[in-house]
TrEMBL record:
Annotated GO CC locations: cytoplasm; nucleus; TORC1 complex; TORC2 complex
Listed InterPro entries: ARM-like, ARM-type_fold, DDR_Repair_Kinase
Top-rank lineage group of the source organism: Eukaryota
Name under which the protein is recorded: Uncharacterized protein
GO MF annotations, alphabetized: protein serine/threonine kinase activity
An individual GO BP term: TORC1 signaling
Length: 116
């Protein structure tokens, strides 16, 4: 069920995006963005039948991904997070609370990250 998947994604974001190990953070970012895809597709196409909880979980996890994508000390992690947020996420990234993080990413010290 989609609802339990979103809760699992929230759990992954809460526990692994802030790991002290680079590889764990990188895989958590990839996993969260991939696992959000079905929920984002469902929300985009059938917003009237999606629970408000699922919508909130997607927003929360995306917010956590953006925090990591703009504040992680390792540029590889920042790149991985921002590269994983492709056009499927556009409607969510266009929300005011997410745009500020994207503007921060535009000023990243690493050119390849700014280019994304």
């Amino acid at each position: 069920e989609g609802h339990s998947l979103t809760q699992f994604v929230r759990h992954c974001a809460d526990h692994f995006l802030n790991s002290e190990h680079k590889e764990v953070r990188m895989e958590a970012a990839r996993t969260c963005s991939r696992l959000l895809t079905p929920s984002i597709h469902l929300i985009s196409g059938h917003a009237h039948v999606v629970s408000q909880t699922a919508v909130q979980v997607v927003a929360d996890v995306l917010s956590k991904l953006l925090v990591v994508g703009t504040t992680d000390p390792d540029p590889d992690i920042r790149y991985c997070v921002l590269a994983s947020l492709d056009e499927r996420f556009d409607a969510h990234l266009a929300q005011a609370e997410n745009l500020q993080a994207l503007f921060v990413a535009l000023n990243d010290q690493v050119f390849e990250i700014r280019e994304l």
